[in-house]
């Protein structure tokens, strides 16, 4: 599993490439990245506890 920081960087890169407006394909990629980012955050919180 990638870290939340790694996934966040990919999300930022996607927005930069898209110029602030996502196509349908980019929106689908973004949604998958957000789910992955949330899972990474949860994993980090569980490990910290």
List descriptors.
49 residues; 0% strand; mainly alpha; 2 helices
Tell me what the structure shows:
The chain has 49 residues and is mainly alpha-helical. The chain has one domain (4-48). Helix content is 82%, strand content 0%. It contains 2 helices and no strands. Helix 1 runs antiparallel to helix 2. The longest helix has 25 residues, at 24-48. It is elongated, with a radius of gyration of 12 Å. It starts with a helix and ends with a helix.
Summarize the structure.
This protein is mostly helical and 49 residues long. The chain is built from two helices and no strands. Helix 1 packs antiparallel against helix 2.
Integer tally of domains: 1
Please summarize the sheet with the most strands.
Answer: none
Number of helices: 2
Percent range of helical residues: over 70%
How is the secondary structure organized here?
Layout: H1 4-18, H2 24-48
